[in-house]
Specification:
Layout: E1 2-8, E2 11-17, E3 23-27, H1 34-45, E4 69-71, E5 79-82, H2 84-90, H3 101-105, H4 109-121, H5 127-131, H6 134-148, H7 162-167, H8 185-188, H9 193-204, H10 224-233, H11 236-251, H12 258-269, H13 276-300, H14 313-318, H15 333-350, H16 353-384, E6 389-394, E7 401-406, E8 412-413, H17 416-419, H18 422-440, E9 444-448, H19 456-467, E10 478-482, H20 486-494, H21 496-499, E11 503-511, E12 514-520, E13 525-527, H22 528-538, H23 542-555, H24 561-570, E14 577-580, E15 583-586, H25 589-603, H26 608-616, H27 618-627, H28 631-639, H29 648-657, E16 666-668, H30 678-691
Parallel strand pairs: 2-12, 3-10, 3-11, 5-9, 9-10
Antiparallel strand pairs: 1-2, 1-4, 6-7, 7-8, 11-12, 13-16, 14-15
Helix pairs in contact: 4-16, 6-11, 6-13, 9-10, 9-11, 22-23, 23-24, 27-28, 28-30
């Protein structure tokens, strides 16, 4: 698939390709826009706003032509991204190494299949809830009743519970309306009494503004005290609490025994407040309501997780039956009907207990094998990568968590991000990310520079773990963005038999906001000798050929006569000299002739004096600079001007950064895969335009 990116950060326009079910490596220098590629793709797939990626140069432009846009992702529905944000959000949690350990390591398709089989067998226990949809509401009402009758640590009715506040010391104030407020009886006893009381209280604030009623302007002098008394006697919150409790009691009426209902009605109508026997009664009712609700919910939400031991499955099922002798306050005809239906459904499951035990045993085996397999895989990786840590999957059923232990310790490491080094932290994170991807199976996996900070051995260990083992990302569509050439060399050149069949690589370039990619094949990865030989054989500019030849001798640490002559030439000395320590000795005539002949054979003709004239003519160097077709070549030629650029950073880059190749056995030719950033070439271009035009 071909992905087009427009107006995202430093990318004005770019196109990259992705091959399905392969490792797509995109290599590029820092500043190319690799993280922007990751963000723009992720935002688009997740239907997130792209506006925060709009380039600063267009921030005040409303024209849609300059709005961020990504296209070509129609085949991709989901994405997982490994970056610094992932590490901080999802790994190294206080009580487990990675968030959702159970879902990642245990909840396999096979496990889910067994879970569904067990839940199918115990489904009969839940049919009473399906047949009586009102039962779920009853459970909520039982819970609400228990909440309203909150108790203290010692078991007595809490003074700040809703029921205590509702009845207070004066009992049900709606049952004892004062004589001088009798004209308000219809308002106080209506279903909207709370709303009315709030409205009435708000109006009281305006009574002193005028002698008239704030509602109708009628005279109020005679009734002002009576109007105020309504708010003094009837607090809207108290009435609201009272109404709520009465409502819950009415909803649960069918579940209360006759004697319970009689006592509750007496309490509700009391006008002198709650005495000790009332409070004791309410506490016992609360405990029964709480216990019955808890038992009903255990049955309603029964699942495979509730069976800890297959041999005790029958015992655990029978324990779910409800013993009505424990519920004297709730011993009504309707409660007995519900309990009977539930007990019958449990008996039906017990009759199938053999099949249930079998499924539980199979599920236990799956969990055990998953734990052993995942622990072994991760610990093997940690061992051959040289990390002195081990992981353990600890816990039961759906509460299994991955924890970390140092090889020299006995306890699980808490706050792993504080104990691990930067490298250890990132290595753990990227491997755990792999397991999460295997569990979630996204359409696209993005790895934003995951391994460039590691040494060579650890890089390959992680690369092997991510893509070579049976349980890996090998068959997934993966986009690996990196500035590190080693993954390309390892996969395409060093071990093509293990990686090349599912790996494609490209070199990313960003020139003035235009992002492009160049395919990298095995033959593009060469030794520095091969690169030098190719340039010396094919490059039209002899100065460039000589630059590479000197670089070649430098890499080989060959400071022989040819190297000494080329060094003298680039220092623009009239006579070539041999430098030994601090001493310099000019070439003899014979040495000069023989060395010129040797170099001539290597670059197709060479005369020291002629090349010295060329290098001494700045106009020829500037002309060669302008004819160069890649940044790397331009920097080598620019260096021959011996220009002292005023910017110290630019000067350092020109004189050092691209002076000696890296120490890898293999690398990409800078002629084809330009490693020089735009800013450096722009600085060189500006210098030449100012000095030589």
């Amino acid at each position: 698939m071909n992905i087009e990116i427009k107006n995202c950060n430093n990318i004005d326009h770019g196109e990259i390709s992705l091959e399905r079910n392969k490792l797509n490596i995109k290599l590029g220098i820092n500043g190319t826009g690799k993280s922007t590629v990751a963000k723009s793709i992720t935002h688009t797939i997740n239907n997130e706003d792209l506006s925060n990626l709009k380039p600063f140069k267009h921030e005040n432009t409303e024209d849609s032509e300059f709005s961020p846009l990504v296209s070509g992702l129609d085949e991709i529905r989901s994405v997982k991204v490994f970056d610094e944000k992932y590490v901080s959000q999802f790994v190294f949690k206080p009580d487990e190494l990675i968030e959702n350990s159970f879902d990642i390591f245990i909840k396999t398709p096979e496990y889910t299949e067994k879970m569904e089989a067990i839940n199918s067998l115990i489904a009969d226990t839940k049919k009473v809830f399906q047949e009586h949809d009102w039962l779920s509401q009853a459970i909520k009402d039982f819970d609400q009743l228990a909440t309203d009758m909150r108790t203290t640590a010692s078991g007595s009715l809490a003074g700040n519970s809703k029921v205590a506040k509702a009845f207070g010391e004066e009992g049900n104030i709606l049952e004892n309306i004062p004589e001088d407020l009798s004209s308000y009886v219809n308002y106080l006893t209506s279903d909207s009494n709370v709303k009315w009381l709030k409205w009435q209280a708000q109006g009281n604030a305006f009574l002193e503004l005028d002698s008239g009623c704030p509602y109708c302007i009628a005279p109020t002098e005679e009734n002002k005290e009576q109007i105020k008394k309504v708010s003094e006697v009837y607090n809207s919150k108290t009435v609201e609490n009272l109404g709520a409790i009465i409502g819950v009691i009415e909803n649960l009426g069918d579940y209360f025994s006759t004697s319970t209902m009689t006592t509750l009605n007496e309490i509700v109508k009391k006008i002198e407040g709650l005495d000790d026997s009332d409070k004791s009664f309410l506490v016992r009712l609360k405990l029964e309501a709480e216990a019955l609700s808890h038992q009903l919910k255990k049955i309603q939400y029964l699942s495979n997780f509730d069976f800890k031991d297959k041999d005790k499955a029958e015992e655990e099922m029978n324990a779910l039956k409800i013993d009505m002798s424990r519920y004297q306050y709730l011993d009504s005809e309707k409660t007995q009907q519900v309990v009977k239906s539930i007990d019958e459904s449990i008996t039906e499951v017990v009759d199938k207990i053999g099949a249930l035990k079998g499924q539980i045993a199979q599920q236990d085996r799956i969990i055990r094998e998953s734990i052993e397999s995942n622990q072994k895989e991760i610990n093997n990786f940690l061992s051959y990568a040289g990390y002195k840590y081990e992981v353990e999957l600890l816990g039961e059923k759906n509460d299994i968590k991955l924890r970390l232990k140092h090889a020299d310790g006995t306890k699980a490491v808490q706050s792993g991000d504080q104990h691990l080094s930067y490298g250890e932290r990132n290595a753990f994170a990227v491997i755990l990310f792999m397991y999460e991807c295997l569990a979630q199976n996204p359409d696209l996996v993005i790895l934003d520079d995951p391994i460039s900070s590691f040494d060579k051995n650890k890089k390959f260990s992680i690369l092997h773990k991510l893509f070579r083992e049976a349980n890996s990302l090998r068959a997934k569509t993966v986009l690996l963005l990196t500035h590190d050439v080693e993954p390309v060399i390892d996969t395409l050149k060093i071990m093509p038999d293990k990686f090349a069949e599912f790996t494609v690589a490209h070199y990313l370039s960003n020139r003035n906001g235009i992002l492009s990619e160049e395919s990298i094949c095995s033959n593009d990865i060469m030794s520095f000798k091969q690169i030098c030989d190719e340039v010396r054989d094919t490059h039209p500019n002899k100065v460039v050929r000589l630059v590479y030849l000197r670089r070649y001798f430098d890499i080989l640490d060959d400071k022989g006569m040819e190297y000494q002559m080329l060094s003298s030439l680039f220092k623009k000395t009239t006579q070539p000299y041999i430098k030994t320590g601090d001493s310099k000795v000019d070439f003899t005539a014979d040495q000069k002739d023989s060395t010129e002949t040797s170099i001539s054979e290597l670059v197709g003709g060479f005369s020291y004096s002629e090349l010295l004239t060329t290098l001494g003519d700045e106009s020829q160097i500037v002309s060669a600079y302008r004819q160069a077709d890649n940044g790397y070549e331009k920097v080598q030629i620019f260096r021959l001007l011996e220009a002292e650029h005023e910017d110290q950073v630019v000067r350092k880059h020109i004189s050092e950064t691209f002076h000696i190749e890296n120490d890898l056995v293999y690398q990409l030719s800078p002629q084809k895969y330009d490693p020089v950033p735009d800013f450096l070439i722009e600085a060189c271009d500006l210098y030449i335009s100012e000095k030589f035009e």
